[in-house]
Each structure stands twice: as C-alpha cells, then as structure tokens.
C-alpha cells in the first residue's frame, strides 16, 4: 500500500501545474502521480482558495515591497530634480 502524499507535496504539485506552463500530464509525470489525481487536487484547490498558504504570503510581501520600491524611486527622482533646480538657481 502506497503512502499518502503530504499536503506540502500536493500544494507544490498544484502550484507547478497552475504556474509553470507545462501540461498537466507532464507535471503529473514529473511528480510521479496520476493525471486524474493531479486534476482532482487542482479542483479541490480551486474550491477552497480561502486558506492562506506560504506562497500567497510571499506573493503579498513581494507586491508590497515592489510598491514601496516604486514609491522610493519616485521620491528619489523628485529629490534629484530639486537638487538640480536649486544648484542652478544658486549660480
């Protein structure tokens, strides 16, 4: 009797199937599970998307850091322009 895959294994297989661009048959073969098993895991994941995962936490953090980075770049650009303006004005 085969052992059941861990929830982490299932989540990773679903994540790869949904984001890698590979066919589901290829992902199932790569993970060593049946195509129908992988399809069932994907269906279950789509029915229960509300549970937070470590991956979604990372994605949320990356989005927040990108927003902050964009804001800091804009502020830096404004300060550069102000420096040039006041340097030319003091001449």
UniProtKB/TrEMBL annotation:
This is Transposase. One of its GO terms (molecular function) is DNA binding. The keyword Hydrolase does not apply. Keywords: Coiled coil. InterPro entries: Homeodomain-like_sf, RD_transcriptional_regulator, Transposase_8. Residues 55-82 form a coiled coil. It comes from Aliiruegeria lutimaris. Gene3D superfamilies: Homeodomain-like. One of its GO terms (biological process) is DNA transposition. Pfam families: HTH_Tnp_1.
């Amino acid at each position: 009797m085969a052992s059941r895959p861990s929830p982490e294994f299932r989540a990773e297989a679903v994540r790869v199937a949904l984001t890698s661009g590979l066919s589901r048959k290829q992902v199932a073969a790569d993970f060593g599970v049946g195509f129908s098993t992988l399809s069932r895991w994907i269906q279950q994941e789509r029915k229960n998307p509300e549970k937070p995962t470590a991956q979604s936490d990372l994605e949320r953090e990356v989005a927040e850091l990108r927003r902050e980075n964009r804001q800091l770049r804009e502020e830096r650009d404004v300060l550069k322009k102000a420096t040039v303006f006041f340097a030319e004005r003091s001449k």
